Amino acid sequence: MTTKATPEQVKRASELRQLLAAHNRQYYELDEPVIPDTEYDRLFQELVALERDVPELAVTDSPTRRVGGAVGSGFAEIVHGAPMLSLDNAFSDQDVIEFDRRVRERLGREAVVYSAEPKLDGVAISLSYEHGLLVRAATRGDGAVGEDVTHNVRTINSVPLKLRGRRIPERMEVRGEVYMPREGFLALNRRAEQSGDKLFANPRNAAAGSLRQLDPLVAARRPLEMFAYGTGLVTGGELPERHSETLRRLAEWGLPIYSGVAVLSGADACLQYYHELSARRHALPFDIDGVVYKVDDYSGQQVLGFVARAPRWAIAHKFPAEERLSRVEAIDFQVGRTGALTPVARLSPVFVGGATVSNATLHNFSDLHRKDVRVGDTVVVRRAGDVIPEIASVVLERRPAGTSEVAVPVTCPVCGSEVVQADGQVIVRCSGGLVCPAQRKQALCHFASRRAMDISGLGDQLIEQLVDSGLVRTADDLYGLDSARLSALERMGQRSAEKLIAAIARSRKTTLARFLYALGIPEVGDATSRLLASYFGTLEKLAAASEDQLQAIPDIGPVMSAGIAAFFRQRDNRTIIGKLREAGVSWDDLPVPDHSNQSLHGQSFVLTGTLAGMSRDEAKAKIESLGGKVSSSVSSRTTYLVCGEDPGSKLARAVSLGVQVLDEQALLALLR
Ligand code: IVH
User: Fold this and answer.
1) Who has greater pLDDT, 555 or 294?
2) Burial of 584 (0-12, 13-18, 19+ CB in 10 A)
3) Which of 182, 190, 279, 511 gets the most CB atoms within 10 Å of its CB?
4) Average pLDDT in the 26-32 region?
5) Quick one: which of 235, 76, 207 has its CA closest to 145?
């Protein structure tokens, strides 16, 4: 260890400070990180180590002493009652064992009890309650001063506007994390893609971007949630003596607390919690990036105190990277069932999120061009759970000279047909239709899949063989196969051929919903297929329906109805349907319901509280049978909030948005 800095160390420290300051700005102020968190952590740790070894390098404005970014413009400043600190990180089991050793030594205890909780990957928030009422909400900002985002936080359903229960302190800062559940994030990006808006890189950036909206109506439409994990300044009241008890108390007052918080003694138990949660993390509906261990008793926390930016009584045990850097070796184009061309990046293999990744989807050409991914680029590869690996961004600083933008192909890479892009649509398609072997194969895979005709044993590889050998062109050809011809295929024995023929034969008897789904009508998934089947009862009625008739069905919009009507107008499709029925594919027709009264068409309902005379499902079914839509959250587009006994926070939201509120009697009158 040296104490006097060498010129190289001075230079490196200055470089690291500049790099970290630039990345801080990208992350905190622009919500647009350009490197993965793990790269940031690595740079940060390098500077921490340099400053520890050579204290003269630890200048007072070093990024290691700051918590986050500066306060952005457009928001009022809020001075936190107690500073909002950050956490030190542990990257290995050993780091945790050492953390526990330091804590035990400082406290002079043999064993220490910790609270273990998930580290939510969202945005830190401080909620100020006065006499139980939410008066302010602020982001962390630089840790001392944050941004006033009260207008947006009020629209988050899980944040109570009023606390309930006993012994609520007069003034209290509740600290927590605002996050966006993964489902909501994916739906938000799907909507953004359709309307050509900017896509968010991940749920955390989406949550940060939503909180920093100036217009609360925009934030209200974003699926945000909150978990509380502690308190800041508390006056005019007492909290319990342990952190875990405080969490329980916060829950009693109506604040959302993660249900899996554990109170554990010693490092081993903490590590076990970490490894268990790590294995389950992808099954959670939201992203977490590690586990936080906190000394549970406040007296111990007080003895331990703080260092520059973080408490000594807590540590964040990070999960290993789910984002890694890799190089783009090539960009290919895959042709899907409907002819859509998807750019796929071939990567130098990297181990990320528990698997080796060598291909990453780029979704579509607008995604490819927005990210401007080029062959030769260094890219951030991300894998979240069982989601397909994707390229999050390009590290432009590392782009080699002489690269060029990827052009949209003029012809289909599989069949050579012309490639078309409809006006205003992001999707580029091969115009070959069933001429294109790639589209035929995909269509057959879909036809045979479990939720469609459910032909077991007919997988991707076999379909590839069947199409390439010319035995099968369209789905109806499957029903003409015999085991003699099948067993002539490579790797196909007599027995498996017979089993497959039997599975194909069994699939002849099906349901209308499955058959509709199997047809692969653009935009029609299995839920929509069930809806269409129960609405029309017979294929003939559906095939004859006009776009207007289709649009009158709840949950069927203009794009879908146009797609369905166009599908049944196409002669090729009608021919294949005819041949399938001739081959013996059949189902029992359903009784056709009466749809003559659609008095609630175009109206959107949200239900809250308990209704006396019917269940929520019954109410939903009645509203939908009259053409109304029922959704789960109140927005400016909601027509009515139906309010039963003990309504939730939706009522306050509806009132603040000026949505008309109906009681049960008023609903019944409307249904009559
Ligand atoms: S405690 C003084 N607990 O992690 C201790 N933080 O670097 C303050 N975070 O942005 C933090 N989950 O918002 C704590 N269960 C948890 C957390 C958590 C997520 C965030 C926090 C901050 C960062 C700390």
Assistant:
1) 294
2) exposed
3) 182
4) 65
5) 76
Going along 140-217, which residue ranges are E strands?
145-147, 171-179
Cα–Cα distance, 258 to 117 (Å, whole number):
8
Instruction: State how far the alpha carbon of 368 is from the alpha carbons of 208, 244, 341, 371, in Å.
Output: 24, 47, 12, 5
Q: How many Å from the N-terminal Cα to the C-terminal Cα in the chain?
A: 83
Q: Is 119 a catalytic residue?
A: yes
| Low-confidence winner among 83-87, 269-273, 494-498 (lowest mean pLDDT) | 494-498
Find the mean pLDDT for residues 364-373: 88
Torsion over CA: 651, 653, 656, 657 (sign): negative
H or E stretch including 387?
none
CA 133 / ligand 1 centre spacing (Å): 24
pTM over 0.70, yes/no? no
* Choices 3.30.1370.20, 3.40.30.10, 1.10.287.610, 1.10.3720.10: CATH for 7-65: 1.10.287.610
DSSP assignment letter at 610: B
The residue behind tokens 């490894």 is: 275
d(CA 419, CA 426): 13
Distance from C-alpha of 358 to C-alpha of 345, rounded to nearest angstrom: 8
Nearest CA residue ID for atom 9, ligand 1: 119
Amino acid letter at 215? D
Length of the chain: 672
- Strands (E) in 43-199, as ranges, are 77-79, 89-90, 113-120, 123-130, 133-139, 145-147, 171-179
Q: Given ligand 1 and candidates 80, 120, 286, which is best to mutate, with the most ligand atoms within 8 Å of its CB?
A: 120
Q: Is the Cα dihedral 349, 350, 351, 357 positive or negative?
A: negative
- Round to whole Å and give the CA distance between 366 and 425: 10
Give the fold, CATH level 3, of 322-398.
OB fold (Dihydrolipoamide Acetyltransferase, E2P) (2.40.50)
3-state secondary structure of 326: strand
- φ and ψ of 420, to 5 deg: -125, 150
Residues facing residue 608 across a β-bridge: 643
d(CA 117, CA 179): 15
HSE of 34, CA atoms in CB hemisphere, 13 A: 16
Residue 33 pLDDT: 66
User: What fold is seen in the domain 604-671?
Assistant: Rossmann fold (3.40.50)
Does 2 score more than 50 pLDDT?
no
Instruction: Check residue 353 and give its pLDDT.
Output: 65
Instruction: Sort 33 into a burial class: Cβ within 10 Å, 0-12 / 13-18 / 19+.
Output: buried
- What the block records as the tokens of 335 is 């042709």
Instruction: Give the separation between CA 233 and CA 251, rounded to whole angstroms.
Output: 18
- Residue 309, pLDDT > 70, answer yes
The topology under which CATH files domain 77-318 is D-amino Acid Aminotransferase; Chain A, domain 1 (3.30.470)
- Tens-place pLDDT, residues 663-672: 888 898 888 7
Domain spans of the chain? 7-65, 77-318, 322-398, 419-582, 604-671
Buried b (16+ CB within 10 A) or exposed e, 36-46: bbbbbeebbeb
| Distance from residue 314's CA to the centre of ligand 1 (Å) | 9
Token pair 């032909």: residue: 455
CATH code for the domain defined by 419-582: 1.10.150.20
Span from the CA of 306 to the centroid of ligand 1 (angstroms)? 15
What is the C-alpha separation between 509 and 586, in angstroms, rounded?
5
Q: What is the pLDDT of residues 194-239, one digit of tens each?
A: 766 677 777 888 899 899 887 778 888 889 999 999 999 999 999 9
* Overall average pLDDT of the 398-424 stretch: 90
Assess whether the C-beta atom of 173 lies below 6 angstroms from ligand 1.
no
At which residue do the structure tokens 């076990």 appear?
272
